[in-house]
Amino acid sequence: MFRSRRYRVDNEQLVLVLTIGLVGVVIVLSSTVTFCVSGLFILGMFVISALLIRAHHRELMGSALPVDEVRTPELAQLVEGCELKLQPGPVETYVVDKDVMNAYTFGLGNPKALVLYAPLTQVMTPGELQFIIGHEMGHVALGHTWLNTIVGGLAGIPAPFGAAVVLYAAFRWWNRMCEFSADRAGLLACGDLNLAVSALVKLAAPEIRNQYDFERVLAALDAQDDAVSNRIAEAFQTHPMLIRRIDRLREYAQTEEYRALQMGVNRNVGEDRPVQATSAPAPTEAPPSAPVEQPAPTESDIPPEERWPWLKKRE
Ligand SMILES: [Zn+2]
Q1: 85 touches 134 (CB < 8 A)
Q2: Residue 105 Cα, ligand 1 centroid: separation in angstroms?
Q3: Is residue 204, in this structure, part of any structural domain at all?
Q4: Does any domain span residue 6?
């Protein structure tokens, strides 16, 4: 049988090799460009974040009330107590007079800024405020404050849609882990699981005034994680569902590790008492989980101006 391939034109194979070689060159070049562009993008994000943070800090200096011994002695004392316990490093605390039930920290360098919105100081009891302040100081102590800016920038690099969704979800997942860690810091700062839980519940329902309200809101929060839609939505949120945060804290408060840490931080403020698994409810604040026959009057029944004299001093 006669078999020949000599009818192939002269440069056919040369052009084939050239084509494959060019594909390789284009892959190397385009990945180098992507690599460089990503690097530039991250650098750009970092610079923009730094500028935005500086501008935000300036704005805050102009409008917010700095927490100090002269203007806000009671709050300054609470902040100092939390600082002593958690040792977060340099932090400046401000109160912003805006109708938001929230607190946050920001800053790339030191000192970090801790911002409390004024309604917190009206709604929360001193112990609950310690939980909130401790939570924020936990973010500072664990580096979440600056990492959030950098990791957020990294997760925002331009990527094909599918990859962008995965990056975004991963970043949010990390955000939620940070919240659980910061809640533990809050618990260590206030030293009482009941205060920690009631602070979390009040974030969702600042209007609660008695045990009955409290149980009702807790039951509603508890029902939230039954819905599949809520669980899917949670995957893209910075904060876990409140009931999850409460459950995690309750579990953590039962551990030996918690007791050891609580004793350690308590020693920082000269308290040497052994720590119980779950502390007994404070006389002025009703236990959040155990049902009681009579709704106990809480500190919230006292007008905020009496609990927080600096609110009057501000006028
Ligand atoms: Zn947080």
Answers
A1: yes
A2: 8
A3: yes
A4: no
Give me ligand 1 centre to Cα 79, in Å.
16
295 occurs within a structural domain: no
Which pLDDT value is given to residue 286? 43
Average pLDDT score over the chain:
83
Distance between CA 189 and CA 77 in Å, rounded? 13
For residue 259, give the H/E element and its range: helix 256-268
Res 182 pLDDT > 70: yes
First to last CA, the chain: 108
Q: How far is the CA of 230 from the centre of ligand 1 (A)?
A: 20
Mean pLDDT along residues 179-207: 92
| Residue 229 token pair | 């839609």
How many domains would you assign to the chain?
1
State the residue for tokens 């149980």.
215
What is the whole-number distance in angstroms between the Cα of residue 213 and the centre of ligand 1?
A: 25
Quote the ligand 1 centre to 15 CA distance (angstroms). Answer: 61
Burial of 2 (0-12, 13-18, 19+ CB in 10 A): exposed
- 205: CB partners within 8 A, 6+ apart: 213, 217
